[in-house]
Amino acid sequence: MKKISSLILNKSIDEISMDDFLYCAGIVKGNGDVFILKIDGAREVNHYTVIISFPTIEAEMIRADDKSMKIALFKVLEAYILVRKES
After folding, report:
1. How far apart are CA 3 and CA 24, in angstroms?
2. Residues 1-20: pLDDT tens digits?
3. CA 48, CA 39: separation in Å to the nearest integer?
4. How far apart are CA 70 and CA 18, in angstroms?
5. What is the DSSP letter of 14?
6. Angle (CA) 7 16 26, round 5°
7. Which of 48, 78, 81, 86 has its CA 20 to 30 A from that of 22?
8. What is the DSSP string of 30-79?
């Protein structure tokens, strides 16, 4: 979780690149967890949904819906750090 923390928690949302977010998604995958990014053009608001689920540990799915992809990604990864620290 140190890698994710250093990439997203020490920067403002504007300083975090999409490459940083994709790298973090790879870490999630490497931990055996599922990372989903949904872009829903049919919705009027909150077009972006990000979900992380945990098939290998007892933890509730993390989900964020937002009008900003970056904010949704940040919210989910921030919560992910806490869940994985506790597991």
Report:
1. 8
2. 889 999 999 899 999 999 99
3. 5
4. 8
5. G
6. 55
7. 86
8. HTT-EEEEEE-TT-SS--EEEEEE-SSSS---EEEEESSHHHHHHHHHHH
Q: What is the DSSP letter of 17?
A: -
Give, to the nearest 10 degrees, the angle between helix 69-86 and helix 18-30: 30
CB distance 37 to 73 below 8 Å:
yes
Tens digits of residue pLDDT in 39-81: 999 999 999 999 999 999 999 999 999 999 999 999 999 999 9
Nearest to 51 by CA among 13, 43, 41, 40: 40
- Please name the residue that has the structure tokens 């009027």: 44
Strands 62-66 and 48-53: antiparallel
